[in-house]
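Ticket 4471: requesting a sanity check on a complex prediction with adenosine-5'-diphosphate. Repro inputs:
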Amino acid sequence: MSNLRFKVVETAFKKKAVSVEAPSGRPDEYFGKYVFTRQKMFQYLPPKVYTQLTNSIDNGIALDRNIADEVANGMKKWATDLGATHYTHWFQPLTEGTAEKHDAFIEHDGKGGMLEEFSGKLLVQQEPDASSFPNGGIRNTFEARGYSAWDPSSPVFVVDDTLCIPTIFISYTGEALDYKAPLLRALSAVNKAAVDVCHYFNPEVKKVVAYLGWEQEYFLVDEGLYAARPDLLLTGRTLMGHEASKSQQLEDHYFGAIPERVAAFMKDLEIQALELGIPVKTRHNEVAPNQFELAPIYEECNLAVNHNMLLMSLMRKVARKHGFRVLLHEKPFKGVNGSGKHNNWSLGTDTGIMLMSPGKTVEENLRFITFIVNTLMAVYHHNGLLKASIMSATNAHRLGANEAPPAIISSFLGTQLTQVLNHLEENAEENLITLSGKHGMKLDIPQIPELLIDNTDRNRTSPFAFTGNRFEFRAVGSEANCACAMIALNTALADQLVKFKSEVDTLINKGEAKISAIVKVIRQYIKECKPIRFDGNGYSDEWKAEAAKRGLDCETSCPLIFDNYLKPETIAMFEATGVMNRKELEARNEVKWEMYTKKIQIEARVLGDLALNHILPIATEYQSKLIDNVYKLKELFPTDKAVLLSRENVKLIEEIAEHTLFINEHVSALIEARKVANKITNERQKAIEYHDKIAPMLEEIRYHIDKLELIVDDQLWTLPKYRELLFIR
Ligand code: ADP
Ligand code: MG
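Returned structure tokens:
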């Protein structure tokens, strides 16, 4: 007997690593080969145009339309030299992916022929008919147009035969319909606010940039096994499947030797990523079997976001070449770790100061403390919003589970920084606060030892941890666009820094010395934001109780968490910083709720289908075999003996009947529940209904399917099992 499952398992087992040819030359020679870097701009653009373009990139000034044609021309020349025939405006709509529509570099020449053409107009702005992108009701159909506009701070690049131009995407009426527009506004807000605060310490600072270094976790599954799992194919996760007898309990996968087929995939991916200018650096196995991680060197936030989006699509493509499928879903398998995307985040100035790194002098350390404490204030006041910024139907499976950040945002600082803040808080006498020292952070106070802040102090359970020179926002989902979290975080900090400056200035205007005014406000902040600091075990029930007492957001329902975006203080913050207005926020929430509903809806359909046409027929077939066997035993043996011998099988027959009955009844109930939910017109209410009623039913049905998987003859079971999905590579 051989079913599809056996065939795909056998094929997967026999697969050999695809050989990957490294490009000639060292990585620094092919790094950025397909990116229109400054060096290439210099080469392909007239000197005057080059100067104007780089000036507008560096200083965030709008590009002069008069030079657009020349820029476009140089770009086209460079791209066609690489074999490109098409171009596309590449943007980041409110889905998880990117969007692109390819056009060829051709125009009528007016004489019945074609000529190669790419004008400045086409580079700078387009009107994709994008009426089917999620917009949360911002666009009526009669004004379905959206504009995509080039963001010159994101370099253009070539993928295959297409020149990709990173753009923002806005509606006819000017509202953002994407992630990039508000991200750029948030980065500009934090730049302005942080520069102003820097001026207390360093008047020469002109610009502050936010940095982002993401760490991308993912699973790989053999493509044959993947194709035999309709749930993986359609929803990105397994909706059923009993845990394998061996899972991750031996912890033998983490940092272990990378399997050959996987190593070939990684090598290929890294080469292609480097060619696209993504500075990938780290690779390793993750905790779960078949789970891996990849991280680049951190970059300016906007670029890092682009690069992550680009990398995710590259991963999907390269995985196919190696006979794998990459799973970016936050929780593809029950009972094993999910995948996240740690967002390492910090701020730096144009003068080379890293604002989240302790310094050597008193002033440097006060500046460091200023930025740390303001960040804590921002995270404290907007902890609910930050959670909303990382929440989704898929990431909801991961948060609060026993391997990922808890569904409560708190911040871990480590013992040393904690001591420093405690000390600052407790000492009323200003003259005690003399921060100095040659190495790292030293407090010149007798009772406190020299402090060297380093990376060794770790708390893996903290969603927002300080790790020496940056904060690590660990709650971001593996599939998410980092922009969403980065918009919330940078905006919250921008808003907070503006408040800080105004409080300090008020004191200064009253005659307080600058340093003492800063210290006074900081001290008050340290007290105020204390509830956000937590160094203990984030998984414990005590913490949940404690966090609620502290007033932190403890909501766990995804649709309700989204409400944080529409709280008056959130709207005020986004509006004050100019990042988003109420209308944009409302529209985004409509999209979030709608997306949530759709994901659960699809899962419910897929589970229902699989239950009815895969699981129940197999279970019934096996049950019939058992019944057959019971009857035959009766024919063969005297009744007493036959009853005895068939006792266990009769029990099994009954057990199967109970499971199949449950599944049958509950699949029907699931369909009915969906009908009720689908009638709800309010997107928020509908999402709540899907969360409260439908999502739990999926789990209940799954429980019985997983039980059947344990009982039913392995030969009959058609869906690849966890042991195959997780251990074949
Ligand atoms: P770990 O797994 O120990 O957290 P990794 O090396 O996997 O560390 O990833 C750390 C990430 O943090 C990398 O992308 C790295 O470039 C980034 N990073 C390091 N320093 C900073 C910083 N100051 N600001 C932002 N990101 C940083
Ligand atoms: Mg990390």
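Notes from triage: The domain at 31-178 is CATH 3.10.20.70 (Ubiquitin-like (UB roll)). Leaving this open until the requester confirms.
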